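We store sequence with structure; for instance:
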Amino acid sequence: MSYGEDVKPKIILLVEDSKADIRLIQEALKTSSTEHTLMIARDGVEAMDYLRQEGEYKEAIRPNLILLDLNLPKKDGREVLAEIKADPTLKRIPVVVLSTSRNEEDIDHSYELHVNCFISKSRNLSELFRIVKEIETFWLTTATLPSDEKI
């Protein structure tokens, strides 16, 4: 990136059905130093509609990062992850599983499906804030993501 180049806000797609967790993640990202827009899908079907730009999401902007819960209604996060990583137009988007699960089978299966990172959510408020801030710092500031044209 050259000096003075316009930097587009990063798009984060949060796929989460828990209203409480959505609110906490929104709060944690409020103090972000990275310009971003948080989009929310409350179930796996809505997430895939958003990602495939179908239905009400025809004008949706591809996210730079997906935060994905595993235990979702309609289509669970494991299915969503498998579909994302099997789709040539979506597979380059980094996916971070952010789940209350600490089940080894869930962790192993997520990595077999090529998740970029698996993080177990904390029920401790300050710990969850720390986790979200670290995700934001690493994935939106430190890591070099694929260009928007190729995502």
